[in-house]
Specification:
Layout (H helix, E strand, L loop, with lengths): L2 H17 L13 H4 L13 H11 L12 H12 L9 H22 L1 H7 L5
InterPro entries: RGS, RGS_sf, RGS_subdomain_2
Protein name: 2724_t:CDS:1
Length: 128
């Protein structure tokens, strides 16, 4: 690489981080935000997240949404009241996360296993 090419690379690479999207912490859905962000229980809620949290409610908890998940009434009412009173918290969807995992692992996965038991056994998918 010539000096001119090296200088051009240095200039371009110093600009590059400004053009990249924001980095996000990615954790498995089985981890609570409180486990991931130790300050989640006491940190002030970032104002920039309010729209995302409202959109999440509108998409998955609002009973009129086409994508509504069958959450218990207490979870829906708790989150709905928090949004209505503008009392956002980083952990306000924790109970919904836990209930989603229960719906997936206990209800849906068990039904899947029952529906396809003979095929699973014939292919020895879960045999050691």
């Amino acid at each position: 690489m010539s000096n001119d090419e090296e200088n051009l690379f240095i200039k371009e690479s110093s600009i590059l981080p400004l053009l990249l999207p924001a980095s996000y912490i990615s954790t498995p859905c089985t981890k609570s935000i409180v486990e991931t962000v130790s300050a989640a229980s006491w940190i002030l809620f970032p104002y920039e997240l309010r729209t995302d949290y409202r959109m999440f409610y509108d998409s998955y908890l609002d009973l009129n949404s086409d994508l509504a998940i069958n959450f218990s009434g207490s979870i829906v009412n708790t989150v709905k009241n928090m949004i209505a009173s503008d009392q956002f918290e980083l952990s306000m969807y924790e109970n919904a996360r836990e209930e989603t995992l229960t719906l997936l692992y206990v209800n849906t996965f068990e039904k899947f296993l029952c529906m396809f038991e003979s095929e699973i056994r014939s292919k020895k998918i879960f045999d050691n």
